[in-house]
Amino acid sequence: MLSLDLLLKESERIEPVPQVIHQLMDLADDPEVPVSEITELILYEPVVTANLLKLANSAAFGFKKKVDSVHDAVVLLGLKRVVEMVLLNSVTKPLKAAQKGYGLETGRLWKQSVSCALMARAIAEKVGVSEKHIVFTAALLKDIGVIVLDRHTGEAMPTIRRAMAAEGLSLVEAERLALGIDHAHLGGRIAGNWNFSRALVGTIQNHHLTDGVDDIPEAAAMVYLADSMCSMSGINGDLFCGHYAHYDRICDQLGMSEAAANRIMSDFFSRKENIYGLLAVL
């Protein structure tokens, strides 16, 4: 069985989310925050500034005028979208690598993570929650533990696949059986080491809803629903396609009709090529 301390030590090779992200997220839901306060935060991060302007000027957004400053980017895109773009860029490198132990080719984990984050945001907007950035961030980082576990899954993968096929276990249940830990719990611990909030850590750890489903927090429910949509849409790798055991219940809890859920998936697919074009810029 794998040592959690050893895995957390190995996770240190993943470049942590920049501190500016935490500051931006604290401001993201404050409608009174002045643009100058946001721009000042980002301006002190030259790499973040450069990447933000590169993204804002990409064909995916199609602005007629060049975006030459952080101020212009915030005004044109909105604070929440800027926070999302900075976060997307900060976790690009580790998520884009191939995860061969899990059967994911180069870029696959990145695409399923970003797709889940965007669908989760759409769900949050439909439901009308206030802290949309927590839902988006948790959906984006929910599989960060896969990056660390991947090198340990080679010998254990036959056991994991057999448990999932023969015993009907979910991926996280099969990981616990074979490895003594699962990617969701590990991902939450990594997020905790990156100083993310307790709510965000808990959402990452429970996004599969395998640990007590009597009282499901709203954020975890939305990430679960978005992840299920990605599985239904063929975006997730085969190991990550769950059984949707709680899908109907979560839709009821969130007040999400089948028509609304289908519309979110359809809207995403209509914009998929533009979205993946944006990913190529990151």
Automatic annotation (TrEMBL):
<dbReference type="Pfam" id="PF08668">
    <property type="entry name" value="HDOD"/>
</dbReference>
<dbReference type="InterPro" id="IPR052340">
    <property type="entry name" value="RNase_Y/CdgJ"/>
</dbReference>
<dbReference type="InterPro" id="IPR013976">
    <property type="entry name" value="HDOD"/>
</dbReference>
<feature type="domain" description="HDOD">
    <location>
        <begin position="14"/>
        <end position="210"/>
    </location>
</feature>
<protein>
    <submittedName>
        <fullName>HDOD domain-containing protein</fullName>
    </submittedName>
</protein>
